[in-house]
Amino acid sequence: MHVAIAGNIGAGKTTLTRLLAKHFNWEAQFEDVLENPYLEDFYNQMERWSFNLQVYFLNSRFRQILDIRKSGKDIIQDRTIYEDAFIFAPNLHAMGLMTNRDFNNYSSLFNLMERVTEAPDLLIYLRSSIPNLVAQIHKRGRDYESSISIDYLSRLNERYEAWIATYDKGNLLIIDVDNINFVDNPEDLGEIINKIDAEINGLF
């Protein structure tokens, strides 16, 4: 069983990954943020480091997917390879922060990887408004995220919604996180778990 959580920066992916891993006794695979050597440089100088950052994430995520399938374990993954390829990289390209040459190179690399990549059995998308994302980003207080603009988050949100509207690679569960608090309210978490149970039971 491979479950993945998708969503914009600050939507609550990592927190929900931890909670669901604990509840279902799944192994959690997290996004390589702390070890990422490009992230801080990227937020300080996006145009210079965008390609390096995206290739690092692509490599990290591809490695995760290969390990997940090889392990045979039940795994929940924080963010997917598709978000890198269909949201973050195209957004940087559209904003003029990644050159045509680099974007074409990146896209070619992803297309090659996708040919040997299996989609998750269940994708959970955390839908969030911009004010909620901003509040969550400020709350966790990561220094390198302090320069993220509302315009940048809005562009990402638009791409997320467009991607999810056409997602057809497997089962999809959409959770609107604006009006729930799955961290402090056990009932909200329980409701999410019930929805996931229903999806999983439908897989078998």
TrEMBL record:
Annotated Pfam families: dNK (PF01712)
SUPFAM superfamilies the UniProt entry points to: P-loop containing nucleoside triphosphate hydrolases
GO molecular function term, any single one: kinase activity
Keywords: Kinase, Transferase
Residue stretches making up the Deoxynucleoside kinase domain: 4-198
Superkingdom of origin: Bacteria
Stated name of the protein: Deoxynucleoside kinase
Natural source organism: Mesonia sediminis
